[in-house]
């Protein structure tokens, strides 16, 4: 325990030390940047600049002067030009008219809502002519004021210059032609659309575009601007530039050092944040760290302009206050950033936001009500919930509209799909199925329509099968009964005219056989009708299935020996009981055995397997057929179907159908399988439970 506590204490101390290093490094970076960029008005790009002519400082010396000259030549020109109203653009005057029209005239009694805007505006120009003239004079005065201010500014510039558009001239020296300026150690000449710089290194200055862009804004036809720099001016500016460059270079090295320290300490803090020990995998959150991430981000963003505002007010006058102000801001900013990092590591950056929480809870609430409610409730929720969602997510309104449009499109498409499917089913195509997408109301409706279609299809198929079976039943019954009946009629007629007693005895024997055959057919038909209709009384009881089959095999042993069949009975070592009617169960098994005796291959094996399947007992009969089984198992289950399609065997074709109906009356299942010449009949019956 003590060792763990020591490790934990050492980890806290290390984190605090690294955190302090990160804050000090960040403060050092901020101080160096402010000293260079704000106090000394220097860009860090000067560190890489080799000569003053190629520096930003050289361009800045001319940038403001060129800007003032281009405004004077391009817009203001002279007092006469301004007083004549030529400096007012059409857009500016139109804006002034609209401001007066919408702020005063539209709320006056003169405004007539029944008139068109065009007629109202004509009326406005007529009634407000004096105010419009006054507004125009005010705009001219503003331009005149700006013109004189620019003229005064020209006296403050050190480079010599001459600018003229052929009529108006602005200069601070007696030099008026290009040749005079070309004698200067450095110059810039803009003559109509030609530009010339000296020395040639000036053209390498990457900041020169700040000057040329201003020249390109005015029409330079008949216009010239000459700038010349004296040697003394260049030397003074170059010396000052060197001093500032040295400050920027020193500050840059300081920034790189502080930056390296801050990056290393920040990486360490990112790795250990949220963990009590360095190798811990579980993240821990203190109660004060439950601040929502979106609020955290807003605070991080707002702290930066607040810090800049405070620093801008105090730095130039009280440099010591810079550190006092910066450190608290840096501490708070770093804590907020590390808290965001912790949520990134915990994969809760999005989930732990106020917006996500509100939307999630609303969606969950409406979703729960939507899922449990009726169509009317769901409609009301959509009508009420969507405007609320729009109000909450106003800042992402286009996305919300897009999602709503997409949702509506999907629902309309789903409804159209259902409508189209119902039309197809209505036209008689019962095989068509509507695609079920999702699990909403339309999905339930699609599933219900498909269920109705399946039910209709089953009903139609069942009816067709029933009609086919009725037809086959009539045909087969007619065929099977007609044969012995025809024979009986024929032999009765022969017997009437036969005088020979020996032949008469033979005729009587044939009549007896045909009569028995006819009795068998009618009895089986009657029993099949009773079994299929369920009019047979069923008495379910506890039946020892092994004993029942063993005793039954003993009763039919003569038939087994006659066909030389080898019966293989497999059953569990313990007693196996089923819930069934003993008489009906044996009748079913007897029909299966009778089917085996009629159609099994002589001198073959017959397998009878009894299996315990937990909740039920399975009895399976397997034999090799003497006839080629060229029909399916379903067809064999039909009434009057026999294994031989030639119908030469003596069976009625009702045995399997009777067996199935009797087993189903006892709450069991009867199935058959055909695999080549292998015939398999399976009975599944409920297992007897003592509490039944």
Features:
elongated; 5-stranded antiparallel beta sheet; 692 residues; 5-stranded mixed beta sheet; alpha+beta; 10% strand
Percent range for helical residues? 55-70%
Which residues sit in consecutive blocks of at least 5 with pLDDT less than 50? 639-652
What percent strand? 5-15%
Alpha-beta content class:
alpha+beta
**Coarse morphology:** elongated
Distance between the termini: 64 Å
> What's the quaternary structure here?
single chain
The spatial strand order of the largest sheet comes to 2-1-5-3-4
Kindly state the mean pLDDT as a whole number? 78
Radius of gyration: 54 Å
β-strand number: 12
User: For the report, how would you describe the main beta sheet?
Assistant: 5 strands, antiparallel
Number of helices: 21
Summarize this entry quickly.
With 692 residues, this protein is of the alpha+beta class. It has helices spanning 2-39, 56-76, 79-83, 90-103, 117-127, 129-154, 178-181, 209-216, 231-272, 293-314, 320-345, 354-372, 375-392, 397-426, 441-497, 501-533, 545-555, 557-563, 582-599, 633-636, 655-665; strands at 160-164, 169-171, 186-191, 194-198, 224-229, 541-544, 566-570, 577-580, 605-612, 616-624, 669-675, 678-686.
Structure write-up:
By secondary structure, this protein is an alpha+beta fold. It has 21 helices and twelve strands. It has helices at residues 2-39, 56-76, 79-83, 90-103, 117-127, 129-154, 178-181, 209-216, 231-272, 293-314, 320-345, 354-372, 375-392, 397-426, 441-497, 501-533, 545-555, 557-563, 582-599, 633-636, 655-665, and strands at residues 160-164, 169-171, 186-191, 194-198, 224-229, 541-544, 566-570, 577-580, 605-612, 616-624, 669-675, 678-686. A five-stranded antiparallel β-sheet has the order 2-1-5-3-4. Helix 12 (354-372) packs antiparallel against helix 13. It is elongated. It starts with a helix and ends in a 6-residue tail after the last strand. The model is unreliable at 639-652 (pLDDT under 50).
